[in-house]
Amino acid sequence: MLSRRRLLSWFAASPAALAYQRSVSAPRGLRIQSVEVLVTNPDQEPMGNFVLVKIQTNEPGLYGWGDATCTGSELGVARFLEEHLAPALVGRNPLEIEHIWHTLFHLPYYRSGSVHMSALSGIDMALWDIKGKVAGLPVYELLGGKVRQELLTYRSVGGRDFSEVEDGVRRLMAEGYRVVKVQVLPPGLEAGYAVPSSERVQRETREAYQRGVPPRQVWETDPYVRTIPKLFEHLRKTVGEEIGLIHDVHERITPSEALVLAKALEPYRLFYFEDPLRPEHLDTFRLIRRQCSTPIAMGEAFTAPWEGHELITEHLIDYVRHDLAHVGGITMGKKIATLCEPYGILTAWHGPGNISPIAHMANCHVSLSVINFGIQEYAVGWGEAVREVFTAFPHYKDGVVTIGDAPGLGIDVNEAAARKRPYLRRFRPAVQRRDGTPWPY
Ligand code: CO
Fold it and tell me: How far, in Å, from the CA of 194 to the mean position of ligand 1?
């Protein structure tokens, strides 16, 4: 055992000691000096705008970064941050995260929603980044420490037909993935969610972007609901039982169709069945639960702190998929995970390519530190321009992701590179039935 003297001399010289000294001395007088918002689209991709928040303190070199990206409302969030939240932050102690969170949540009175909650999420992440740097510790340490060393992850395959999906699944299995999300284009349709669209739809989409208007996409539910169970039957026969399979409905069917599909998929033992219903269809979640054992995942569309909490407290779902960049950041992610704990509900934080690597790092810090982790969605394969703007990424290998142990979130932004690639106006497709009815209604 180390003697007390040796322990003290070791401690006095260690980075931990320097961090400790900083943590007891810095907070006195530590203040937020400025809040800057940076909107960038490194890859100049249709869905690639990132809204980044930088909180600078009065201590030189001590700042934090957060992700406030909300695809479809990017400039709304940026303006909301600059005009309605940032001025209330200047002069405050950045270490008082819980206090600041609640102050900013109630500040506008008309609260919640995608714009407010994305803005608050970005601030929350930046504050945790600062707190980690002050403590000299990665954020996962402040959240209770690592429960595991690596995070199970999955990747998506979208195909025009079953054999294309099968080929994609085999490729990912060879890369080490143990779980894959599978989507297929239903017969007779030219576009769908997370599947390749026809050349005609691709051309029309390009033309719509050039004119600066939303592209139109035709969708029918019936061919989709008939096709998906056949896809799973095909995959279980060809790729076997070992691989975990996820499917995402993306809220594109009616409540009764969701019930039919959840039951039809039961024999194929999905890893989970994602977003079968819109958040407001609580009654149908109850019906699905009573009638089948298909595991359900839900949450990426929630934009209020406790939205959908009945799904958890009535144990109507198996995985929470909240987007930590839309629901209140790391603070809210940790609370949601804790609420799920007694029900055995696991986390599967939303991690698509249209939130920035800062939010992906935040996801990983929470996922590493909660006992009821399930899986972490992670957008492997960032383009070169994204890699120029951000200094760190979760590291992917053999079906799992890991992050480093740098203090804070462990990611910085090359602001000059970000400014060279500005905001790009793009719309998500306007989905309609063949008769022109907007869908979903
Ligand atoms: Co989804």
Answer: 10
pTM over 0.90: yes
Ramachandran quadrant class, 145 (left: phi over 0; alpha: psi -120 to 50; beta: rest): left
- Do the two domains 9-138 and 151-406 of this chain adopt the same fold? no
pLDDT digits (tens), the chain, 441 positions: 444 444 444 444 455 544 544 444 455 699 999 999 999 999 888 889 999 999 999 999 999 999 999 999 999 999 999 999 999 999 999 999 999 999 999 999 999 999 999 999 999 999 999 999 999 999 999 999 999 999 999 999 999 999 999 999 999 999 999 999 999 999 999 999 999 999 999 999 999 988 989 999 999 999 999 999 999 999 999 999 999 999 999 999 999 999 999 999 999 999 999 999 999 999 999 999 999 999 999 999 999 999 999 999 999 999 999 999 999 999 999 999 999 999 999 999 999 999 999 999 999 999 999 999 999 999 888 899 999 999 999 999 999 999 999 999 999 999 999 999 999 988 889 999 999 999 987
Q: How far is CA 128 from the centre of its chain?
A: 17
Kindly list the domain boundaries of the chain, sorted by start residue: 9-138, 151-406
**Residue 41: closest CA among 388, 401, 364:** 388
Q: How far, in Å, from the CA of 398 to the mean position of ligand 1?
A: 23
How many whole angstroms from 275 Cα to the centroid of ligand 1? 6
User: CA 35, CA 340: separation in Å to the nearest integer?
Assistant: 33
**CATH code, 151-406:** 3.20.20.120
Residues known to be catalytic: 193, 250
Distance CA 265, CA 271 (A): 11
In angstroms, what is the span from residue 134 Cα to ligand 1's centroid?
36
Q: What angle (nearest 5°) sits at the alpha carbon of residue 91, between those of residues 88 and 97?
A: 70
Strand partners for 152? 400
User: Distance, CA 152 to ligand 1 centroid (Å)?
Assistant: 17
Positive or negative CA dihedral for 129, 134, 138, 142? negative
Residue 371 CA, ligand 1 centroid: distance in Å: 23
Tell which CATH architecture fits domain 9-138. 2-Layer Sandwich (3.30)
